[in-house]
From TrEMBL:
GO terms for cellular component: cytoplasm. Belongs to the folylpolyglutamate synthase family. Keywords: ATP-binding, Ligase, Nucleotide-binding. Residues 40-179 form the Mur ligase central domain. Coiled coil: none annotated. GO terms for molecular function: ATP binding; dihydrofolate synthase activity; tetrahydrofolylpolyglutamate synthase activity. This is Bifunctional folylpolyglutamate synthase/dihydrofolate synthase.
Length: 207
């Protein structure tokens, strides 16, 4: 059932926007509000950064949820708690429960997995969730949550068909995960860092 559902959602493709994921989270009573969230975006290194941060937080005594993409062999790799991937039966049960909401909201494949991760994390009583951005930032599904901290690893030209043709365009998209008066971190350098700093200032973020 779960594999069939995910395959069907994958055929829907991807349309930028946060309306569907926000509607879905509202239908699910906002599981993302049960824990702190760190968003990790950037052109390169966001997956390894998210994983390293999760390990550091776990070592500090946090119960940590980790959502990453893409997976290598099994979709379960995307959803972990304290380093352990979600069990096959747990993912199956979760997707069966979520199926009516996924259909009603018109969720995409990525949006469905992001929502499933958030519901799972809430049920597992995590204290902090580290969520890796899938593409860009501003319209990515994980950006529907309110982060305590946002990280942009770096800024370079990538996915220009989605994010825009220049570094300034890409920086604005990736800065979409920053929040006013909230801390943000980056390892960006050069022109990418300058464009990101300008975008962060425009958003009122503390970069």
């Amino acid at each position: 059932m779960s594999r069939t559902l995910l395959e069907r959602l994958a055929r829907r493709g991807m349309t930028p926007g946060l309306e569907r994921i926000r509607a879905l989270l509202a239908r699910l009573d906002h599981p993302e509000r049960a824990f702190r969230v760190v968003l990790v975006g950037g052109t390169n290194g966001k997956g390894s950064t998210a994983r390293a941060l999760a390990r550091v937080l776990q070592a500090a005594g946090e119960r940590v949820g980790l959502f990453t993409s893409p997976h290598l062999l099994d979709v379960r790799e995307r959803i972990e708690v304290d380093g352990a991937a979600i069990a096959p039966e747990a993912l199956d049960d979760l997707l069966v429960r979520l199926a009516p909401h996924l259909e009603a909201s018109g969720a995409s494949y990525f949006e469905a997995l992001a929502a499933a991760a958030l519901v799972y994390f809430a049920g597992q009583n995590v204290t902090t969730a580290v969520l890796e951005v899938g593409l860009g930032g501003r319209f990515d599904a994980v950006n529907a949550v309110e982060p305590a901290l946002s990280i942009v690893t770096n800024v370079d030209l990538d996915h220009t068909d989605w994010l825009g043709p220049t570094l300034a365009h890409v920086a604005r998209e990736k800065a979409g995960i920053l929040r006013p008066d909230r801390p943000a971190l980056t390892a960006a350098t050069g022109a990418g860092a300058a464009f990101l700093a300008a975008a962060a200032q425009a958003r009122g973020a503390r970069l």
